[in-house]
Automatic annotation (TrEMBL):
InterPro entries the UniProt entry points to: Flag_MotA_CS (IPR000540), MotA-like (IPR047055), MotA_ExbB_proton_chnl (IPR002898)
Protein name: Chemotaxis protein PomA
GO cellular component: plasma membrane
One Pfam family in the UniProt entry: MotA_ExbB
A Gene Ontology BP annotation from the UniProt entry: chemotaxis
Annotated organism of origin: Symmachiella macrocystis
Major subcellular site: membrane
Domain MotA/TolQ/ExbB proton channel, first and last residues per copy: 101-220
């Protein structure tokens, strides 16, 4: 579970609620209107459904899950695992890795090792692995587009709801006492649109983009590592190749000294 995402959402909602309660003369009930919420949320979802095919929409729950439960892989442990596999291949031969497949948890590493054991040509293997990486990046891109689209349409429907409220209010100008409350209800819809967009949809889209970039980078490390193992590189060489993908402060003391 991504604590920053949950904490950020909870903090944002809490700040808004606190602001309502501490503002002089404000009432919490004045900030809730079911019709306004329906216009913003329902309208944004409807517009997004028009913009995307059903296949993409059905994957939306997985998109949300990705922002809350990202891939747990980290670069350093992945490099350590690949170096360990390189040591086995260097010592006992590439076919010895077949005995290690049951210990490999990550499906992408397992796929690459199985192809290496099967003796697939290195160029073909690289093409297949990079195609898989591109496929993951494309799926994440579609997910971000979904969230961006929701974030773009929510304020628009907030404005639509406000215009609807103003029309209703102006149609009842014979009652001066209803003008103030009517204006307040009309503006609530704009508020809802801004909150849904800027507190939920757009931040989640940015979080998904961050995790997508990180996952693609780690998969690129895996591709380089597996190709290096297949070529029979020394485990030390494999380690040095892969550590160049890490920031200088994560590469180890030798390379940190070089970087300095």
């Amino acid at each position: 579970m991504d604590k920053a995402t949950i904490g950020g959402l909870a903090s944002g909602v809490a700040l808004l609620v606190i602001a309502v309660f501490v503002a002089p003369g404000s009432k919490f009930s004045a900030f809730w209107d079911t019709a306004s919420a329906a216009v913003v949320v329902g309208g944004a979802i409807a517009a997004t459904a028009i913009a995307f095919p059903v296949v993409a929409l059905l994957k939306f729950p997985r998109v949300i899950k990705k922002t809350l439960q990202p891939n747990a892989l980290e670069a350093a442990p992945v490099i350590a695992e690949l170096v360990g596999l390189a040591e086995v291949a260097r010592k006992d031969g590439i076919l010895a890795l077949e005995q290690k497949t049951e210990e490999i948890e990550d499906p992408f590493i397992l796929l690459g090792i199985q192809m290496a054991v099967d003796g697939i040509d290195s160029e073909l293997m690289e093409e297949l692995l990079r195609t898989e990486v591109d496929s993951v990046a494309e799926r994440h891109k579609t997910g971000k587009m979904l969230l961006d689209t929701l974030g773009r349409y929510a304020p628009a429907f907030g404005m639509i709801g406000t215009l609807m409220g103003l029309i209703i209010m102006l149609g009842n100008m014979d009652d001066p006492d209803a003008i103030g409350p009517g204006m307040a209800v009309a503006l609530i819809t704009t508020l809802y649109g801004a909150i849904v967009s800027n507190l939920v949809c757009l931040p989640l889209a940015d979080k998904l983009a961050y995790y997508s970039k990180r996952e693609v980078e780690i998969r690129e490390i895996i591709v380089r590592g597996i190709l290096s193992i297949q070529q029979g590189d020394n485990p030390r060489v494999v380690e040095q190749k892969l550590k160049t993908c890490l920031p200088a402060d994560q590469r180890g003391s030798d390379e940190m000294a070089d970087a300095a």
